[in-house]
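Course exercise 7: structure representation. Students receive a sequence record and must write out the corresponding structure in token form. The form below is the worked example handed out in class, using DUF6282 family protein (294 residues). Read each field label carefully; the graders check that inputs and outputs are placed in the correct fields and that the protein name is recorded exactly as given.

STUDENT ID: A-19
EXERCISE PROTEIN: DUF6282 family protein
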Amino acid sequence: MTAISDILWGSVDLHVHSGPSPFPRRFTHAEAARDAGERLGMRGILCKSHHHNTVMDLLSMKDQLDGLSCRAFGGIAMNNQVGGVNPFAVEMSLRMGGKAVWLPTFSSGRHIDCHPEGTGFPTATVELRNVEVSIRKEDGTLLDELHDVLGLVAESGALLSGGHMDPDSIEEVFTEAKARGVRRLIVSHPNFVIGAQPEQARRLVELGSYVEHEVSMYDPEGTKKWDPKILKDWIDAIGPEHTVLASDLGQANRELPVDAFLRVGEILLDLGVEEKDLQRMTRDNPAFLLGLEN
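STUDENT ANSWER:
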């Protein structure tokens, strides 16, 4: 039987919470890339912050990243700390090499409704104010600034994430994004915070979206410990061709991304997922979304 490390070799992690960050982190972006490359031969990681443009972090770490086999990429989330839906901040991030734009996460109405006191997340190292970032005008139509952001994402070929918004809002934005020529769309942890059912996720898939699940939620040695059969049911419902597995890790006092990938990968094989499908969800699909097809 092929070793799980060999099956997952060359994977891409689209959801790494490395540092610096206002939240305590286990490692820096450079340390995350080194660990991913040395231990699992990962081709790339996408470094996510809820509060700032990680592209600038990576540029400042160039000396530490040069020579690593795993490449680190950054992007920007449209939360309060970057001015909400701010096309000027998005433009700078993308033109400095950013690969992803996240619709509001911590500042989305859906996230605030689920976690009004910030429960379930680490305590920030600094005091941060958070109010809802709306994507709509008073008449309910999408903000002009959001249309500008979608144009920038389409122009750059970057990835657009649904953030932590509700499924209907994600579908509305993704419909417009597709019309504008955005090719890389993803919705993260649909059954956590987002609150999507498989039939809603299938509508997003019809728009060209991929559905991302976090191995950290299903790691038996992790902090969440959800039943991996839930993940298998989602894979069966959506199909591995439209599914991505990522870590959503990097937080202090939590497991390393590579370890979660290895453990959950083994479990999925035991549950009947084929090796080629596991590779598709951890390697091929995320490589396309990050623009690493070749």
